[in-house]
Hints:
With 495 residues, this protein is α+β, with helices and mostly antiparallel strands. The protein is built from 10 helices and 23 strands. A hairpin with a 5-residue loop joins strand 9 (174-180) and strand 10. Helix 6 (300-308) crosses helix 9 (367-392) and helix 7 (312-318) crosses helix 9.
Amino acid sequence: MSHRPGLLSATDEVGAVDTAPDGVRVAPDDGAIADYLHDESKLASHGAGSLAVPQTLSELRQVLRWHAQAHHAVAVSGARTGVAGGAVPDPGAHVVSLDALRGVIAVHADREPPTAEVLAGTSLRELNEYLAVHHPGLVFPVDPTESSASIGGMVATNAGGARTFRFGAMRDWVTRLTVELPSGRTLDVSRDDHAGPDGALTLVDGDDSRVLTIPPIPKPATKNAAGYGFTAERAPLDLWIGAEGTLGVVSEVELRLQRQHEERLGYLQFFADAETAFAFVTRLRADRSLKTTAIEFLDARSHALAKESAKPAVDRVLQFASESSCSVFAEIGYETEEELAEIADRLSVYVGEVQGDAEMALAGANEGELKDIRAFRHAVPERINAIIAQRREHHPGLHKIATDMAVPTSRSAGSSTDIRKCWVRRGSTLPFSGTWETTTSTSTSSRATRRSWPGPRRVTPSSPARSSRVAAVWPPSTGSDGSRSPFSPCSTPPR
């Protein structure tokens, strides 16, 4: 590949493929490939044109070249952990699964920073387990909250999660990609590649040469995922990160790793109302000397839903909280016990400054201590799913809606109140939770544990935005005749 700025050249690794490669199942029965026709969105498809589960990169390239020559519509299937239906193929599409393309190719522990090369089907859990066994002290910090997610899928969606507060999303950690283009050719693109004059890219793809220039597009200062991630100031690599597979199939990924020198404290603080909780978060975010990895908010309705799960762990966590209380969970890194104690003292001060009760807190610094808190946090979506399943018996077409929105941090409290009022007007039960873009979170099942928490380096919040996840439980309360539509519009639609 040429090192001329802005020039990307694809290579032909397999030649012509005129017939379906071995292992491709043409016009398969829906029942036989049901797992590949849906994802965690619970949406499903039917009538796939074919299914291929390549075992090697060579097999993947042969399958994609055959589809390219036959002008087939291709649907790429990863771990299918997404909740937006991105892995659900259109009827008639040809499914190519990366399930079998798993494994860590190499870890370059002597580099600075260290990196790992993995096949795209490798799960986050597999990568972390490999590092723990073969390279203790090296970690990959991005956590989209689903350890079974594939690395390729995380690249395709620019996955983030609660820890984006401190570590950012996938784009910040990818150093090189191998991409199988729609033409069936292969492209290697690195963070060291640069755009040409005026941000132009020239892609040489066989006999086809295309010039791509992306004009400046104004985007809001809050969290934004609209459009492709490449701009004139960014590396060409960013064009494929977050592109949802629309520009090619990511087959290999090189990731930047982090040297881990810290432990993490998980801290769950209860508050009487959301306004007080958000005031505490403002102080927590402002303290840039804390190695805060994540910050999450759960409202009183979320607490009630968790309690309905009847899990003993949830009862233990909520035994100190009133029915109307909400909570903030934070995860913070620390290196020494002295540091942990200092952080605990500082948190107590911040809680006191907003007229909260520092005794209404749980904290933990290891998985055993945090087990109950994790169960509490997971109980909310689990209970929502159970409610949906019950109501689906009477409303077969029922589907859970979960969506993210971003608002300036200064509007967090007001926005949450406005959203709740809107949904109450339409008769829906609404749990409201949020994560702040910049930091981590963790907590424990022991009451008012005194600890402190910093990490390996200073954290500087990079965005004034927070994203809020709103999960509406459908349908809202209906009359005895069940005549009310579960999707009646809000009288004042949020914009």
